[in-house]
Amino acid sequence: MIRLGTLFSGIGAIEQAFIKMGLPHEIMFACDNGEREIKMSEAELRETLESVSIDNREKVIVELYNRSGKENLMEKSYKANYAIADERFYQDIRFLDGKKFTNKVDIVVGGSPCQAFSCNGKQGGFEDTRGTLFYEYARIIREVQPKCFIFENVRSFMKTICTDTTGIDMPIKDSIYSNLADNYYIYHKVLNFKDY
User: Fold this and answer.
1) What is the per-residue pLDDT across 102-153, written as a single tens digit (0 to 9) for each?
2) Which residues have a catalytic role annotated?
3) Given the DSSP bridges, would you call strands 89-90 and 25-31 parallel, antiparallel or unpaired?
4) How deeply is 112 buried, as exposed, middle or buried, from its count of CB atoms within 10 A (0-12, 13-18, 19+)?
5) How, if at all, do strands 2-7 and 89-90 pair?
6) What are the tens digits of pLDDT across the range 84-103?
7) DSSP string, 34-78
8) How many CB atoms sit inside 10 A of residue 134's CB?
């Protein structure tokens, strides 16, 4: 049984692949905010959560997202398609405590929002708040310590984070990403979706 964790889960692409391939798996956690926003600055949000215990933090996050007035359609679709307990679906990667899942997950899969890097976006990179969510992905990998992980994004992401995009075992510029290399063999490749 493969123990799976997904971040930026969407409607569950990797889960569908596992089902179609007949791979037995258990979803340990999933996380997606459904493109909703909390109407607070990062500083205000952190201050609000400062006095909240880790056990109650997700309840507060859910309440704050519910104030947006928008339903999390990603969560609704995800739960309609996959067996996952309510307490294992998280609204915001920034506040997911990966330590709860340390050594309890075989594979973590996800790809942070691509708009910050895509040639169709504004290409703000790590200056765009969405671009910085990659750091949260890296944090979760360090906390969870899965056996392996898959991170996907657009070609421009690789140009931003790597010094060379021509092969594998590329030197990584970003120190947080480099920290992952201490525990994992990092293999990356640019794929063209038209080939699949």
Assistant:
1) 999 999 988 766 555 555 556 555 555 545 677 788 889 889 999 998 877 6
2) 114
3) parallel
4) buried
5) unpaired
6) 998 899 998 988 899 999 99
7) TT---SS-HHHHHHHHHTS-HHHHHHHHHHHHHTT----HHHHHH
8) 25
Backbone angles phi, psi at 154, to 5 degrees: -85, 160
Greatest Cα-to-Cα distance within the chain, rounded to the nearest angstrom = 50
Report the 10 Å Cβ neighbour count for 161.
20
Burial of 195 (0-12, 13-18, 19+ CB in 10 A): exposed
- Beta-bridged to residue 31, according to DSSP, are 90
Q: Which helix (H) or strand (E) holds 18?
A: helix 13-21
Buried b (16+ CB within 10 A) or exposed e, 41-75: eeeebeeebeeeeeeebbebbbebbeeeeeebebb
pTM of the model: 0.76
